[in-house]
User: Fold this.
Amino acid sequence: MRSVTAENITETFLGYFGKDTDPRVKEIMASLAHHLHGFVKDTKLTHDEWRESLELLKWVGEITTPERNEFVLLSDVLGVSSLVDMINSNPAATSSSVLGPFHVSDAPEMALGADFKRHYDGEVILVEGYIKDTEGNFIPGATVDIWQTAPNGLYSSQDEEQDINSFHGVFTADENGYYCFTTIRPVSYTVPSDGPVGKILDATGRHPWRPSHLHYIVSAEGYRSLVTEVFPNDDPYLDQDTVFGVREDLVIGYKPQAAGTFPKEGFELSGKVDDAFSKIDFDAILIKK
Assistant:
């Protein structure tokens, strides 16, 4: 095609596809071209604006490391990660939520009742629940991968003072689908804002704050894995999470427990907690593949 114009460039682009192009690839690329070309036309994008956009994407690549994935963070703050979660969620199962860029692979396997808190100061949180299917049946042997920030608001991969596996652990639910552990109350924190994502937030007058939460990846043979988060119902950022991760069924109460009522057995901290603490009950519902 020699006479490419602003009116026919999208169709020309699609006409260049090979006859053996995978249908799904063709569908995705066709939609991308329609929306991207339409965006350029609608905004009457200038050369300077396009060059600045390319420089920002270049910066995203340059700042990305094994410990910090700025591409994931960019997807998160633009709402793309959450939108993919939403359109792929099943209403019969627990809502999915963003994975985020700070999950540590190969976290240590931990016994039920293990403790994340270790030497850190703060309120003890006892977390327990069940892994179930959509019919209410317990799923024995499900894997529950948990992680969170330290009290300073940093994940282990962001903080040289923490061991890489700090506040990370993998549990195996028992024959009744039950899991439990103790930790410290998570805190609200800011996503990294010293790079291109921060520039976008500043340009749009947005803050970088996330409500406090626990991250979960729950998986079991024969079921779709669930990536989700659990939020306390009193966090000030619930209604303006900068990565759009909050879902109604993921907001729960931290139930205050009186001093001296911590379980006398079954937990690593049994016999060691004399102060008041809080309790979280969270059941995860998985859908069959």
Observations:
- Residues 1-45 form one domain.
- The longest helix spans residues 23-43.
- The chain has two domains: 1-45, 75-286.
